[in-house]
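The freezer alarm interrupted the setup, so I double-checked each line after restarting. Inputs confirmed:
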Amino acid sequence: MKKPLTHITIVGFVMFALLFGSTSWVQFVTADSLNNNQLNNRRILDQLARDRGPILVDGTPIAYSEPVDDKYKFQRKYGSEGLDPRAYAAITGYYSVVSGASGMERASGEYLSGDSDALFYDKVGSLFTGEQPRGAAVELTVDPKVQKAAWDGLGDQNGAAVAIEPKTGKILAMASTPGWDPNALASHDSEKARSAFDTLEGAEGKPAYNRAIGGNLYPPGSTFKVLVAAAALESGDYTPDSTLNGPASLDLPQTTSTIGNSHPGACRNGGKPSLAQSLAESCNTSFASLGMDLGEDAIREQAEKFGFGQDLEVPLKVTPSSFPDDLNPPQLAQSSLGQFEVRSTPMQMAMMTAGIANGGKMMQPQLVDRVLNANTLEPISETRPKEKSRPISGDTADELTSMMEGVVTDGTASVAKMGDTKVAAKTGTAQHASGAAPHAWFISFAPADDPKIAVAVVVENGGNAGNEAYGATVAGPIAKNMMEAVVEE
Amino acid sequence: MSANVAEVVRPRPYRLAELGLLILAIAVATSAYALVGLGVEGTIPANVYQYGAWLAVLGLIIHVVVWWKAKYADPVLVPIAVLLNGLGLAMIYRVDLGRSEYLNSSLTQLIWMTLGVGLAIAVILVVRDHRWLRRYTFVSGFAALLFLLLPLIPGLGKTINGARIWIGVGSMSFQPGEIAKILLAIFFAGYLVSYRDQLVAAGPKILGIRFPRLRDFGPIIIAWVASVGILVFEKDLGTSLLFFGLFVAMLYVATSKVSWIILGLGFFSVGAVAATFLFSHVNQRVSGWLGALTAEEYNKTPGGSYQLVQGLFGMSNGGLIGTGFGEGRPNMVPYAESDFIYASFGEEIGMAGLFVILLCYLIIFQRGIRTAQQLRDGFGTLLATGLSFTIALQVFVVVGGVTRLIPLTGLTTPFLAQGGSSLVANWMIIGLLLRISDNARRPVEDFHTGVLRVTEDPEERTASARDSGDRNDTARIEDEDAPTTNFAATRNGAADSDETPTTNLGTTGGER
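Predicted 3D structure, all chains:
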């Protein structure tokens, strides 16, 4: 029996050799790829259990992690004294043990969790100093006063507001209503967290949409006339004083339908308003005929220069705004008034406004101001202002600025007058469905001679004013309060 | 090496070595337990002293019994079993702490361990000479069959996770298959040692392979078909595989017939492929193994690869040195305390820790085989081979399944996994191996001349006097063994078979 016994021994040893091999294979050779496998939920749990860095607004945490005594070790919390978590939900997003992350929690996730390669030296440093390694702090560009003005102004109306610092592209405010409380989703009780998520997704008014940068987008209405005016000026064939055709009613070619003005009768100057006058009183007929004269391509080109149709990350992903294709003349006429199938985000309209305010230089919008070491608050990286594009010349920008000032001093946006401060603005009242109240729009910047803030506000379905809504009356006061939060400092 | 009686060196008992290793094992196991508390709760568990004391008492009792009744037994078996058992307890405690409700399952397991150690001691005390078991060859065979059939009895049998291999009385459940494993090894050993000559020599020759006569092979076939058949019926693939491997290995050692092994493996392959197509639970295991990392298999319920893949993720998370006790997430893997305890260890003590565990099993296997090689009788050789190969094969099937080397089957990791029946059975195997290794290494003068009986024990003398058949039986074993060439072959350098016992001693002694 000796020989077979030796063989059995060999078989046994081979079996053990295979086990040593398979164990090494799992724990060493393929360990990295297993750790990074898409199905591997441990990675998420590991991140959840880490001391995640805070999201700061003007030095105060709007999102932060607190040590707790459970398996996740840290509880994510939102809001601070004076910072309503609901007002910031559109920016922070949520951080959930069951639903992952959204908003800045997702977009800046690598910094907050400490995974980013940019934090490498910082991490090495903490090895020597013995500090508890933790995620980095992300400081936002948001100005809490502007954000509060936007949030309070929107109130219980559905809508969105964005404010940008024209010279730097810093996003000073981004609000979307209805708001929601990310704290409910951050619950460590997975049942509660899941039901909070389902509530958020299923709720009426779709709070989960960040209306400032996504959602279903809005027809920009008359605020789009600024863009058409820009196209006209850029073409070289028009000046602010060029005379346009602004009758009480404009017959559209190829159809029996007509375009009328929002006020009865012809536009200024006996139906022959200048370009500047057309903008001031938001003359539909003159802009419709101007649009048809300029042509589809010229308007689309101008729109694209302002950012329409482009992907954008601030670092939140902004849904591209769009200008339709293959338009017949009546559709082109409608589109020139920001109707038909023109769709835009408040972010896009704010960018355009900021570009005009900044003398034709459109800056890259930024939400992250600085990334800081969460322990020492020493900056790890700082976001520098970056020019995104030059959609219009400096001359055109100057001309548009004074035309938009005229809208405030002598037109539909008088609501935005701010004492001695020069304000440039444009109103919009966008029809979007028959029978539904129009969306109220307002874009503006101030001071017009030294712009510190550019704003775009939209209030859905006329907000509380309903069918009586005009951009000026519903969205205007919100924009004004936001501007005042900066300008009256 | 040639040796004569004068040069015989008495083998050293190595009892103090056992004691030293045992203390080390208890210290490691107790530290693991303390580290679990420290890692999970932040404090050393309050009952760590009682726990360590309990382990120490169990270990010392069996140590003393071995010293007293099996002085020449292999000195590493007890420490390794205590170490593995202790580590298992620590991990069971750790998984328990990770649960939302604390089940105190480590205490239950400790009670089972106590029972297991008690039974191992009983084995050492009752079975004074392993050859005594040979008288119960057929009794063991029938008992094994009975044990395997128990779960099929309505009212008594319980189906847990699709496998009907449990019997339940009240809230207690037990896997009789674990005990049947030992009984089958005894049966196979006793039967094969008696009939191997007939099996090999007589019978028709087909295609160059000599097949045994049906009447010689019949009982083996019946035992095998019955055990495997019942297990397929009871839907426990792992145990079926284990019994089959045990059977083939012992048959091969008894007969040296490679052709039968090839035949056996052929049968098994055909059976495995057929089972894959015929039984949905086998099919699930195979597809969950092949496509483990696909989302489709991962998300499939029931079946699918979720458990396997979670285990792999846990192990890869552990990496080379592990997360440390209490720092991983073993609870994410279903059955982290039983079927997947290997993955739990992989996560928290890493590849390094798993290598130590594998090494422990390898040592048990190697010591068992070494004992088989040293033995003077065929029955003991076969039994020691069977028992140690069972442990090796069981480890292979479980760990291979968990590490995705082979399809996953439901078997417990010996000594580590939570589960009373398996623990008790494995302690009984240790008891048997201790007894057999004691016989293998004990100097002949301790047996005295004539019949191989220990005469220093007065009880023994009266027992053998009372039962004269016992003597004959013992003598018969020797007679049967003599012509098998086993002896001559094992005794390297032995010129003639007359010297057999002495030479054997010399060999053993020289190796020590």
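Quick read of the result. The mean pLDDT of chain B is 80.
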